[in-house]
């Protein structure tokens, strides 16, 4: 027979009654805050109903911990857990799974938001809250394996093996719905890493461009040369790295980066010009040119990288070492570096953008409006509109685009990168609209869009 619940002392009943009053008051504050976002009680701000909901949840749990309602067959929350849970291990796994759900939902629930705001020093270290689902998956996997074990416990060894094999087969079938796409990896290191592997470097390696996501690739490729790296990426970074990261994201990049690099004991700079964005290309090239003029770096040589080239430099202040490069490699490096600096600024970082409206092959009426965005480091001078039938005027510039500003914060005009144009008068049928984006430095880029004129 089921055991009788323990008696609740008068003191606990009185505490439960006090919690009831507190619950009513907090619930009233929560309802009021839902309609009055600036609600305050003296110095106490109650304008966030989500935080009040967390307090309300805590008050309800405290009330249940003191005593359950009189109609319940359980005396309190503790009594409920003791008498209703068949195994405390199962309860622990359920708590672990619930914690995983709470973490992975992140700020979508008021509870995690409350924990983050109240204990930021702890929860601020969680880089990707969505990965909290791993706790849920772990608990679910253990419970599933436990359940399968209990279900097959009374079967013979053969039948039990067949049941387990069937369960594994079902899992494999389910996994087919979530294929893992593995990118091909070339086992042969690129030329600059082959050289680094054999070179007796007296210090570390720094690679440009600096920062995320490039540093992830440098960390992965470090296995090809096995030398210490300055800008490896492991999600968390020491203070000197963060300071250097901030310097590289200033425009222009200040010359103070050279002393910061030296402080990190780097001896070789590897420059990958083909991995730069248009804005990075200009900023890094200016820094590189100033570094050569100031004798902060010395060219060692260049190395082919597919259809592109990588450059290697010795950093000033680092001890000299035997680079073991043939004279032809050094001469080729000088020629290729001269060719790199001979490219005009407009060709190095041409303007870019996109046509948002109309969509490709969209039906349009003559006189309809089109829109898009465009950016250039030097600024946009004009956007010429044309079709296969000839020129058709220019687009108007300066439209507000906060989305582009968020995506390209380093461009001075990104907040007003929008443009608009009018679809010129053309006979019905298929046509091509050509927008020529012209930068203030003379660089040009052509955007094309096919439309169907009604």
Molecular structure report:
- With 454 residues, this protein is an alpha+beta fold.
- The protein is 44% helix and 20% strand.
- It has 16 helices and 15 strands.
- The protein has helices at 10-35, 49-66, 77-84, 88-105, 110-118, 120-123, 133-151, 157-175, 191-198, 214-225, 239-248, 257-263, 278-293, 327-342, 345-348, 402-407, and strands spanning 40-41, 44-45, 204-208, 266-271, 297-305, 308-315, 352-357, 362-364, 369-375, 380-387, 390-394, 396-399, 418-422, 429-439, 444-453.
- It has a five-stranded mixed sheet with strand order 8-15-14-10-11, with no helix packed on it. Strands 3-4-6-5 form a four-stranded mixed sheet.
- α1 packs antiparallel against α2 (49-66) and α2 crosses α5 (110-118).
- It is extended, with a radius of gyration of 33 Å.
- 20% of the residues are buried.
Descriptive keywords:
454 residues; alpha+beta; 16 helices
Task: Reconstruct the topology from this structure.
Blueprint: H1 10-35, E1 40-41, E2 44-45, H2 49-66, H3 77-84, H4 88-105, H5 110-118, H6 120-123, H7 133-151, H8 157-175, H9 191-198, E3 204-208, H10 214-225, H11 239-248, H12 257-263, E4 266-271, H13 278-293, E5 297-305, E6 308-315, H14 327-342, H15 345-348, E7 352-357, E8 362-364, E9 369-375, E10 380-387, E11 390-394, E12 396-399, H16 402-407, E13 418-422, E14 429-439, E15 444-453
Parallel strand pairs: 3-4, 8-15
Antiparallel strand pairs: 1-2, 4-6, 5-6, 7-9, 9-13, 10-11, 10-14, 12-13, 14-15
Helix pairs in contact: 1-2, 2-5, 4-7, 9-10
